[in-house]
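for the writeup, i need someone to sanity check this before i put it in the appendix. the sequnce is what the collaborator sent (i think, or maybe the updated version? ugh). structure was predicted straight from it, no edits. if anything looks off just tell me and ill rerun, i have time this weekend
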Amino acid sequence: MVIKTNVSALTASRNLLETNKSLSSSLARLSSGSKLVNPADNAGGFAVSMRLDAQLSRIAAAEDNVGNALSFSQTQDGYLKKVAKALDRLGELAMLSLDETKSSTDRQLYNTEFVNLQQFVTAASERDFNGVSMFAGNGINVTIDSEASTFNYTACNLTSTTFTNATSGVDITTTGNATTALTRVKDALTELASQRAKVGANQSALSMYHEQLGTLKDNLTAANSRIKDVDVAQESTTYAKFNILAQAGTAMLSQANSSSQGVLRLLG
């Protein structure tokens, strides 16, 4: 029996140290909710999780971009609905002015409303969305994914000759002028129908991209969760195990430290 080197106590101390280390790691996972408290826990998983976190952030930004483009498109269509209503009324006024039973005074009164509506259509063509012109015929590129791919948003143009012919240089003060105005308004309505169809096609595509981004974000979030999120039930069991081992280790270390006291009886 030796008293200078207590091998049993050294072994118990080393085991207790390792148990306490494991206990601390388990406690850190439970308190943080993550299996990856530091890169050493799972170096490969840590790198993958970092890339997924970055991609998810970019996807969220792309969702915002697509959502803003949808708002842009919906605002466009809101104006186009009112322009369509104005053009309908312009056509109606032109038809009323073609009535031979109307006097020049009547036509002049119709023309007053006609001019006001022309100005309304012209003003609508100059509207913008957050400083971006909606009807100048300029297309925009909408970022639709985390890799900066773009969707070419088809332009809407209310400044073309077809529209300016219907909103300037024509009146309905005479039957001849009303005939010309009616033809131009009908052409503008035909063109407007085409413009609204383009806006509708843009909205349909953007809605699909928005839904796709939402689904992708859900799937990537689930994949990232499997890598880094702690299984609380499993980790609680692990924590309980190491907690018991730590208590047992402490007791055994105390026992090992006291075992050398038996030498005193030999010396007595």
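Residues 43-97 form the longest helix (55 residues). The chain has a mean pLDDT of 88.
thx in advance!!
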